[in-house]
Amino acid sequence: MTSTVPQPPAPNIRTAAKAVILHEGRVLLMRARWRDQECYFLPGGGQHPGESFDDAVRREVHEETGLTVAVDRLLWLREYIGAHHGEPADGSESHRIEAIFLCVPTGDPHRLGGHSQDDTQTGLEWVPLRNLPSTPLLPQALRQPIADLSHTPPPPDAYLGDVA
């Protein structure tokens, strides 16, 4: 009789697209209640199979905020491996890869209200860039780089899109 050794679960890597939407020295953030704390997140979310990152960020922003946006450029690629940040190392940990794009509203930036908000979302707010370092934006590592966009030009676009 052959015994089988249990295999660890297949890795679950989630890809997502997030938006840094700037308008008149402010950035649009989603207010949320997450893990019993009030915080903010960038609008955006999971990429669907067969969907490009730039299409995903436009769709997610519209769903969550009601805004239509133009994608200017890729700012950063963020990776999060849950086991490296205190999540259980039993194979259920999360691994996320997020493409974070600089976006510009193409419609009225003050007409907000998405039709498919996240469960944790409690509102939307235009936050002055100067206030971002002390704003409870998650992940914390994005606070200063986004605030710096008010006086530092963004890096050159490194996103090639869906190319063969």
Per-chain topology:
Elements: E1 13-23, E2 26-34, E3 37-41, E4 44-46, H1 53-65, E5 69-81, E6 95-105, E7 121-128, H2 143-147
Parallel strand pairs: 1-6
Antiparallel strand pairs: 1-2, 1-4, 2-3, 2-7, 5-6
Counting DSSP E segments of at least 2 residues, the number of strands comes to 7
Number of helices: 2
Tally of separate domains:
1
In terms of DSSP E residues, the strand content is: 35-45%
Shape, principal axes of CA atoms: globular
Mind telling me the C-alpha Rg? 18 Å
Quickly give the structural class.
mainly beta
Overall CATH architecture: Alpha-Beta Complex
End-to-end separation in angstroms reads 49 Å
Low-confidence stretches: none
CATH fold-type name: Nucleoside Triphosphate Pyrophosphohydrolase
- Main beta-sheet strand count, sense and barrel state: 7 strands, mixed
Helix content: 10-25%
- Mean pLDDT score: 86
Encode the helix/strand succession as letters.
Answer: EEEEHEEEH
The top level CATH class name: Alpha Beta
CATH superfamily: Nucleoside Triphosphate Pyrophosphohydrolase
Primary descriptors:
Nucleoside Triphosphate Pyrophosphohydrolase; single chain; seven-stranded mixed beta sheet; mainly beta; globular; Nudix_hydrolase; 11% helix; 164 residues; NUDIX_hydrolase_dom; NUDIX domain-containing protein
